Amino acid sequence: MTISPDFSESFYRQHAQRYAEVSHNFIQSVYTDMSHPMLGGDRDLMDRLMELVPPGCRGLDAGCGAGARDVYFYWQRGYDIYGVDAVEENILEARRLHPEIADRVEVADLRRALGYPDGSFEFVLCNAVIQHIEPDVTLGMTLPELARMLKAGGVLQLMFKCGDGVATVYDGDYGVERAFQLYAVEKVLDMLEGQGLGVVAGESGKLGGVMYFKDPKPMDHCVLFARKDA
Ligand SMILES: C[S@@+](CC[C@H](N)C(=O)[O-])C[C@H]1O[C@@H](n2cnc3c(N)ncnc32)[C@H](O)[C@@H]1O
Fold this sequence. Notes:
By secondary structure, the protein is α/β, with parallel strands linked by helices. It is 30% helix and 27% strand. It is built from six helices and ten strands; from the N terminus they run H-H-E-H-E-H-E-E-H-E-E-E-H-E-E-E. The protein has helices at residues 10-24, 42-52, 69-76, 88-97, 135-149, 185-194, and strands spanning 58-62, 80-85, 105-107, 121-127, 150-161, 166-171, 176-181, 197-199, 211-214, 220-228. The strands form two sheets. Strands 1, 2, 3, 4, 5, 8, 9 and 10 form an eight-stranded mixed beta sheet that branches. A two-stranded antiparallel ribbon has the order 6-7. Helix 5 (135-149) links the parallel strand 4 (121-127) and strand 5 (150-161). The radius of gyration is 16 Å and the shape is globular. Mean pLDDT is 93; it is low at 1-5. Bound molecules: S-adenosylmethionine. The site of S-adenosylmethionine has 19 residues, from helix 1.
């Protein structure tokens, strides 16, 4: 039997409120088996991104999730950030929880070209999203689109589940089995390099380079910051 990742979006439609609760309480955002001593969870990545990109910069959270936690987080800290997600319930939940950013979040599908002009953003986040997209589409459309929308010198934060094929795992926070597309790290790095994006190194012990961790499910993840050539 072939197992496919849950491209159907039905999981998020059903669990939007619970997802927002889990995400806003950082319940699945604490890592183990980290490859970098400074990487303990999502908050560490947020702190590092704010060092790489100053407040006031324009950003996009591609696949912002139910409640758009990170759009709200960066907006509160002075960033001109927007969020898109394929699932309407996720966007409605963001508007319900954070009416202040209601006009900053909208429905859009990263399997297709987005309407933003080239170089629209100084930073783009894409965290735990390509696990729901077929690899051909991710490598042929989604990641090139994200690169296109970045300004020269802009930073992409990309987090993905790494490995081969599709993995299914029981997610105790929702009481269901979930299926995720995994990615070979080298393939993703080659693709980014081809788009003029180079991995930001971790100078002076700061977060950087190609980093790895496990989430509480537990699943193996890779996360990196990549800067677009000036
Ligand atoms: C695991 S959640 C991650 C949410 C958020 N980035 C975070 O780090 O908490 C994955 C999100 O990707 C969204 N997503 C999946 N496929 C998508 C697509 N093709 N276009 C836009 N969003 C998508 C889902 O609806 C879901 O909100």
